[in-house]
Amino acid sequence: MILNLEESGGGRGRHRATLKAVLVDNINGRRTFQDVLVKGPWRRRELAALKDQQELATAFKYDGKVGAERRNRELEDTSWSDQDLQDLGGAAAAPEAPAAEDDDFDAEADSEAEPEAELDYAHEELPVKVKGLQQFEGAIYTWEEGVARGCVAPAVSQALLQMQLARPTLIQRYALPLICRSGTDLLAQAQTGSGKTLAFVIPIVSRLLTSPPVSRPFFPGPMAQASPVALLLSPTRELAIQTSKNVADLFLHTGSSMSVITLYGGETISQQVKPIERQNQDIVCATPGRLLDAIDSGKVSLMFATTVVLDEADQMLDLAVGLEGTVTQVTDGRDLPRNDGRQTLLFSATMPDFQTKQFHAVLKKPPARLKLRVGHYNEDEKGGSC
């Protein structure tokens, strides 16, 4: 783990720090990518440290207070051992109450923006809010209902049952019909482990199976270039691999000949792009840095990518993590269609207020932008999976 640390004014063992890490709250199951304020002793949290910017390393515990302190980022980086952290925690004054986490769900990048309509669904097992719609056709509670409403391909419905997925999770019930709305982007928030990945994989695969094939030029061989119609971006290699597996499983169980390729750091790019020499790729699952490598080497073009997903968008657009600039290069600096020529889906466990403009910058403006939130997002309430 990397800490930028300085003692705050007045001494008394108080320290400020910026910490590049994933925070896992074992009580709420909440995971966030953010800076923290070290000042102990406080309640115990587990930290999964960052390794090489995009990869998660080993986990350990320390006494510290989670906060939204984002200053002093220019201080010299110092690596701290577990013992160093324990020593820090032992030299503290009385703990302060944790700062409430700002929430982007009700925030607007433009203070003069028109207020968006908001729908609440109190009958669900967890709170559900849909923002940006005056009327909503309602959730999808079975795969068969999804087929009837044109959100799930019949072959995908059968495949999900074969995969022992009997019915949609809570996030899937609401995300599927919202994603199926033509011409609208979606910003969706739900706890980790709620089924967010399949919430966007199912409608994307269904759309590919039921839509007429897109005519894309492709010439097999060493100089071949893939031109996917869907791009699924993840902040880590592990998440990119898992997302690709979900796509591949649906293709397999539906009997589709469509293909998906996974691009991530840590392996030679020449081996990862080998499948492109044989056939075009319909979906690309990638980390941003490796995707840029593939684009700049001429192996991937995003010209036909009309659906783009940013999974764990809070991590992808967090300046402290260093991925934000890379993601912007993908969305704005290459041949990806502009946001008014594609559907963009952002899925996240948190929506910090300081990221409001970053979230909205890659999405269409209302009324072509919808928001979905599932679960509790209050310090006094216990969150949970769907």
TrEMBL record:
Residues 99-116 have a biased composition (Acidic residues). GO terms for cellular component: cytosol. Residues 177-369 form the Helicase ATP-binding domain. One of its GO terms (molecular function) is nucleic acid binding. It holds the Pfam family DEAD. The keyword ATP-binding applies. SUPFAM superfamilies: P-loop containing nucleoside triphosphate hydrolases. It comes from the Eukaryota. Residues 92-116 are annotated as: Disordered. Signal peptide: none annotated. Keywords: ATP-binding, Helicase, Hydrolase, Nucleotide-binding. PANTHER family: ATP-DEPENDENT RNA HELICASE DBPA, ATP-DEPENDENT RNA HELICASE RHLE-RELATED. This is Helicase ATP-binding domain-containing protein.
